[in-house]
Amino acid sequence: MQVEECYQLFKGSYEDVKSRLLKDELIRRLVVKFLADPSYDRLAAAMEQKDYGEAFRAVHTLKGVSQNLSFDCLSESTHLMTEALRQWESTPVDEEACEKLWKQVSADYALVADAIRKLAEADE
Fold it and tell me: How far is CA 66 from its chain centroid?
């Protein structure tokens, strides 16, 4: 599988990431390395415990990585969740809205991660 095909599977912006990182070898290496990033697991644990401070930090990190790699769907859903949690210290969290956003982040993450696993398997 080619890197561009991987991006097509999750409707990412291959052209955008290619314009910044230039080489498919570098993009492939960084994309596969994404699976080792602990942010999603930290977010899942924080949401389970309703630790919205930790959830904010984890989703904010995941958003940044997603944006840098042009994972558009995951970037958008993590952005929305980040904004919903941004004022967690001073404003009560709308738990129902956050749960809905969390489900969307999880679905988008699964889509991206599945495509990346296929890319990684093609390397083996």
Answer: 5
Task: Find the mean pLDDT for residues 46-60.
Answer: 96
62: left (phi over 0), alpha (psi -120 to 50) or beta: alpha
Taking only the tens place, the pLDDT of each residue in 71-88 is: 999 999 999 999 999 988
Contacts 24+ apart (CB under 8 A), 8-14: 9/111, 9/114, 9/115, 9/118, 10/71, 10/73, 10/74, 10/108, 10/111, 10/112, 10/115, 11/72, 11/73, 12/69, 12/70, 12/71, 12/72, 12/73, 12/112, 13/70, 13/72, 14/70
